[in-house]
Design brief:
Blueprint lengths: L2 H14 L8 H10 L1 H9 L13 H13 L2 H10 L2 E4 L21 E4 L4 H5 L2 E5 L6 H16 L3 E4 L5 H11 L4 E5 L12 H10 L1 E4 L9 H14 L2 E4 L7 H11 L3 E4 L7 H11 L3 E2 L3 H8 L21 H9 L6 E2 H8 L3 H13 L3 E4 L2 E4 L1 H4 L10
Parallel strand pairs: 3-4, 3-7, 4-5, 5-6, 7-8, 8-9
Antiparallel strand pairs: 1-2, 2-6, 10-12, 11-12
Helix pairs in contact: 1-3, 1-5, 2-3, 7-8, 7-13, 8-9, 10-11, 14-15, 14-16, 15-16
Length: 388
């Protein structure tokens, strides 16, 4: 494609971001069939019924044509540039190829604000999403996941919304990491207003991206539809807290359809904010509790989470025969070696030898011909002399 054709396609796609709603698959089929330049011609200068678009009602076609006629892509591109933003289209070197998995629901283009290369960042990224009205536990987990992923060199993607999204972004930034906010409005619009400082920091240290042109305002449907971009952009999606009806679960289901990993952080069974996550985990979602477990799933071969186990106690290191004799001793009172041998499944001589071994290790003590557990052996696991 020569420079003139490439410039015409960029202008046409910029204009179409004012005409086509995000995720409109019918319009995506028009784009695939006619290309952006021809589609804009059909919308702005129709020459007859043959320029009608298949599947569009007269009212819908009229609405599209009014929007297309009013679009001023050169002005939008200049406005974006004035705020430090740029416009990416499929085929650009910086375009994330994984968005092509959305097929006809693929974005017409992406408005991007921030200095890093979107394609490179998206190659090693994870989405962390969840409830807006989250609990303190949820906010803590969102922030911990964000910082933990950042420390492991992963880019954290979320939606800059209140609650879990904001916690994940803040945790990432606090760790000096990379984060991308996928917006349901223009990249020059601050929403929610309470996140003005956070969105400003992301614009300086990370990336703000969105499908809407400068000044584009959010709507409930646009919030839902932008979730498909979060799911497609990343290797996997982690849901921290979500009710049964939640936009975060929309992201997770979109990720599943695209063949991405879906993960959930469990919460209290009594909390409504855990219900959606637990339902996800009852299906194809994978339970995760920290960043190491997330990376083990989405990362490269060998990026394994550490083995999980309780503390190693001294009795765990005993030989099997000694352990059986120790277990045969009563918790209270004493026992003779003749009493212990049958319960330990061994001979009297063997039991006596094991008792002297346990005595040397401080587990038992002798009182005449009887044996009993020491106070140290009776201490609960996890405690030691001198305090907890």
């Amino acid at each position: 494609m020569n420079a003139a054709a490439a410039g015409a396609e960029r202008l046409a796609r910029a204009a179409l971001t004012r005409v086509i709603e995000p995720g409109d698959e019918r319009a995506g089929r028009w784009l695939r069939t006619y290309g952006p330049v021809e589609l804009m011609r059909r919308l702005t200068t129709p020459q007859g019924p043959e320029d009608d678009l298949p599947g569009a009602s007269p009212a819908r076609l009229d609405s599209h044509r009014r929007r297309a006629t009013a679009a001023n892509p050169a002005h939008d591109l200049a406005s974006a540039a004035a705020t430090g933003a740029r416009f990416l289209i499929p085929g650009d070197e910086e375009w994330p190829r994984q968005l092509d998995d959305l097929a006809d629901a693929r974005p017409v283009g992406l408005w991007v604000r921030g200095h890093p290369d979107l394609r490179m960042w998206a190659l090693r990224s994870v989405a962390v999403v969840g409830a807006r009205a989250c609990t303190p536990y949820g906010a803590h987990m969102g922030a911990v996941l964000g910082s933990g992923l950042a420390e492991r060199g992963w880019v954290v993607v979320s939606g800059a919304a209140a609650g879990i999204d904001g916690a994940a972004h803040r945790g990432t930034l606090a760790a000096g990491g990379a984060t991308i906010a996928v917006l349901a409005c223009g990249v020059d619009v601050v929403y929610p207003r309470g996140h003005a400082e956070l969105i400003g920091r992301i614009a300086e240290q990370g990336l703000l991206i969105g499908e809407l042109p400068p000044g584009g305002h959010p709507t409930p449907s646009r919030f839902i539809l932008r979730n498909r971009v979060i799911a497609a952009l990343t290797r996997g999606t982690v849901v921290v807290e979500a009710e049964y009806r939640s936009g975060s679960l929309v992201t997770a289901r979109a990720a599943q359809k695209l063949g991405r990993f879906t993960m959930g952080v469990p919460g209290p069974a009594t909390s409504g904010l855990s219900a959606g996550v637990h339902e996800l985990l009852r299906g194809d979602g994978v339970l995760v509790s920290d960043a190491a477990e997330v990376v083990e799933l989405v990362g490269d071969m060998g990026e394994l989470a550490p083995a999980r186990r309780g503390p190693v106690l001294p009795r765990d290191l005993l030989a099997p025969g000694a352990a059986r004799v120790l277990e045969a001793l009563p918790a209270r009172g004493t026992a003779t070696v003749h009493d212990l041998a049958p319960d330990a499944g061994t001979s009297t001589d063997e039991a006596l030898g094991r008792l002297y071994e346990l005595h040397a290790l401080g587990f038992v003590e002798r009182t005449g011909d009887n044996w009993r557990l020491t106070a140290e052996a009776l201490r609960p696991a996890g405690t030691r002399r001198g305090g907890a």
